[in-house]
Amino acid sequence: MPEFCDVALPVPLDMVFTYRVPADAAPIVGGRVLVPFRQQRMTGIVMELHDRKPAVTAKNIVSVLDPEPVLNELLLRLARWISDYYFAPLGEVCRTMLPLMAEFKRTIGYRITEHGQSALHLAGMSGSTARSQRTPEEQMLEFQVLDYMTGADGDLVREQTLRSATKVPRRILDGMIRKKWLSREDISAPQDAKRTIKVALLKSVEGKLNDNQRTLVEALAASGSKLPVDALQALEVPRTTLGTLVRRDLVEVIEEAAEFTVSRAKARPSPFDFDFTDAQNHALQRMREAVETRKFSGMLLHGVTGSGKTAVYLAVMRAVLDAGRSAILLVPEIGLTPAVAADLHQIFGDEVAILHSALSDRERAEQWHRIKRRDARIVVGTRSAVFAPVDDLALLIVDEEHDSSYKQEETPRYHARDIAVMRAKMSDAVVVLGSATPSLESYFNAKKNKYALIEIPDRVEKRPLPEVEIVDMRMEFQETGHEQVISRKLSEEIAARLERRAQVMVLLNRRGYSPVVLCRTCGKKLECSNCAIALTHHKREHKMVCHYCGYTAPVPKACVHCGSEYVYFLGTGSEKLEELLHGMFPQARIARLDRDTVRGHQDFERTLSALNEGELDLLVGTQMIAKGHDIHGVTLVGVVGADVALGLPDFRAAERTFQLLTQVAGRAGRGQTPGKVILQTYFQDHYAVQYAAQHDFIGFYEKELQFRSWMHYPPYSALANVLVRGDQLDEVLEWSGLLGKWFNQTRHETVRVLGPAAAPIMRLKRDYRYHFILRSPSREKLNTTLRAMLAYAAQQKIPRTQVIVDMDALWLM
Ligand SMILES: [Zn+2]
Ligand SMILES: [Zn+2]
Asked: How far is the CA of 762 from the centre of ligand 2 (A)?
């Protein structure tokens, strides 16, 4: 056994740490070990075993946690690539890839130090010290803790024991650690991850059933023959009914590892119920052939909204499973509802693992083990599912590949779509990126033959795309003489639909009641105290809310700056729009979908199914409504102020607006009746608006690409946003000044540096923010420059957590 091992630890430092391997331990590369780190113990991943003696004395590892690797060779390679590409510490990358933290219950222990011993001794002699800033109560508590700890005779005392004995708050303990009177250790130990629940399985439906029995049997049948017993008990039938069914051998109750509970919603028609169109069949064929070659290839599936891309994905995944291999399907955050899960269980049975954001850490770990054991070879999930430990990966699909929820906005700042492409390359697998509105980058790659381009130009059953009518809101203002939220045209069309009992959706991509509170006397806005952002008025909750940090304040009666009573609430959010529509159409049944009304997937699904069942006439909402599933009754979509983003200083604003407009327009007319879209805009001549109205992706793409090429923006160059942040403005100014000077003094061929400049959102969550934007046609050169910059920042003692490199940044705000 080699003498040393290099361990990646989840700390913000760009390095691995070397430990000595004790004689009786046998760590393995890719497995977890428990090691001492500073005052605590930490779990890390073994990256390498070797005999190179480090310059400083290496500590011993405490224990080996895994008999076999949790990250295989391929995933370790991927981790290294991510760490290098996104400038993220390797240990933090590994932690993101492994949802196994729940297996370790954190236990903290304390030990008294020599300092502590002498402090106790001194306190006993002289009482309190005069210089102390602590209250007598605090000093008394410290004294009690030290006294208790001496009783332990230098042994470790668990935090729980110590706190229940002395009633000391954590704050005091932290202070004593700072004074080096106590030392703190993490004595966490692995726990058994298994947890089981009782599950009812439907075995047969033969024989006569009474009403109660039928209710249970139908509920089971509707969710793929399987439901947790708890879920059945929520149905209103006597508890004995299940017992009777078990005795009759119609149902069996088994113990199973707890997993994602299958939806109790009504079964939806199977996605295979309709015939594939020629274009769908062609797409399926191309994917199956590519998978069979067992070589890397990338495909971009560009299918208009409503063209049945999901059915194609499911069919090719089924083929992969039948061949005994594995597939991963990534879906955007909001796309994974219990109804979708029920569909997946229907098609893949027990062989699918579903990783959604509502899972607890423990559930996530359980799913991870199922995949690792090869119990589940099909994985469907949001962003981090791209790291699922499947074996023999044949296919990776990224649905709605343009969706911004694939980008993680904290360290490691990775983009799951780009990781999917890299993982497919490393695994000789096929990657399919699908969208009705592909990102510029992906379409550009397809045009340059990096990906095969597969088009599905028509909707299923040849349903037409909706007609889009643009309403110029500047004209509306001139003609009516005042600012309108709902134009006359939209109002007429809504009335006509309600008359015919057809359904309507109205999109306003801004939540709350009023987005701005302005003082007419001094002209100042009411801003968040942590961010340079206007607070939004939420009428029903009767408060002002910051949408960036969650800060809340009371609704002002007078200006907080000058005391004037002339404060005005300006603008319209989705809450106010709902109220307005109630006023205009008092008979209509109206619901709203936004982050204020939707707390979880259930709320989202409940509202959508109410719409599907015809219990609603009008649905108002933010971009969330653009991402719903097939809703057949909606024949009119109104778009109110979806073009606000066009006014933002962000080079992706046009692309984002085009995507949002196209996606929301795609909600109209999915049933038999053709749909219509009324698009209200103040930017009626903007190409993003015009091309979206004409459903012309190619036109938009060509125009936008021209602009990106002139401005040297992606996909014509690699771009990184370097953010310098901190809660002290002078520190941030000093650091960004230092880095700015360094960029000027060092030459970086082909790399353009903009900045330092105040970020568009200059203060966020109490941090002041300055940034640089770096662009280069050469990724390699950009990477080298950034690496040298980080080294210089470390040399200047700028904390690593305060200089953030966001490679391929989606937001420059
Ligand atoms: Zn004022
Ligand atoms: Zn804020």
From this structure: 11
